[in-house]
Predict the structure.
Amino acid sequence: MKIYWAAILLTLLSFKQHTYELVVNENSIVNYKTLKPFFRNLDSLACLKDNVVSIVHIGDSHIQADFLTSSTRCLFQEKFGNAGRGFVFPYRIVHTGGALDVRFDYSGQWHYCEIMRSYKDCNIGVAGYSITAGDSALVNVDVASKAISDADFNHVSLLSSRGNFYPTKYTGNCSFHNVNDRTEIYFSELQDSLSLIAIGEGDYGTKLQGMILKNGNAGVLYHSMGVNGSSTLQYLRSNGFEKELAELNANLIIISFGTNDCYLPSSRFCVSCVKERFTNLIMRIKVANPNVPILLTTPPDHFYFKKQSNQNIEDLRLALHEICLEQDVALWDLYHIMGGANSILTWRNEGLARNDLIHFTKEGYQLQGELLYNAIMKHYEQREM
């Protein structure tokens, strides 16, 4: 498959002028020294070119659409190598949108639950959703027709249980192995599409909580997942969260919540409650991944019901700075970097934010992804050897 790096980089370069106009504050990471283990992983990859470095990025609607994370993913893979598309989820089955570069179709009977509402009787993982297929239900994945980079794969890890998904419509030969709640499928040739048929056990159906697409090469895997409208309150309901994070073998975990945590009238906003939830989320991550570096990001500036810049962001931002030191994690202060209160208006006027004054345009998210990559790489390149 043709690689589209050149087009991507040309697009990002067109936003450079916005970087200088809009980002008036230094693009840096607080407590960046906690990222040293991740930097050592990058060093090993750059030198030996024989390992995979895994980044996991979790958040809300700013992350679910993958515009921000696809920008960061492409830049990391351009520099350090492409190990595959990483974690993907068939959001279409749960009637919501996801990344545009991976297409899913499905047939048969499917049921789902998610952390926003129907979560009490479900084992939900990092995707924030869990889907269950009836016998002989099909799900098709296509990484070719809308690809922005080379996402061909020869290894698929299915986060599944209670039965199996068997591959159909593939080229070459394949073999598969069950490992705990994962099904590992290996192909003798690279695939750009695949159909999976569910074969259940008993009357329960076959559960699927995501899949990881890899190509067997050394490089970076950049996994991203998010749930529209979610906050730390909802993500703490994910009872399979820690276990599946461990399955992703993360070398860096990026947490991007906050917009929905503070989207309240100031009289109802409890900053200590939100701080406690962030802390609990970090502690749960550390249980399953005790040595993994964690990078928090502050929510961007946004308006509350289009009336004024959300006054709760500053309180949440200060709380995240406190957590950064108390829990020894890193922090990327996007709110400060993009200009602070009312800066969303400038971004909107530049065509980088939407008229709802909460979300960003595709170009705005791509710029944020570039800024995140640049902040990490600045400290990587300036690190003590």
About this structure: Confidence is low (pLDDT under 50) at residues 1-16. DSSP finds twelve helices and 19 strands in the chain. The two ends are 38 Å apart (CA to CA).
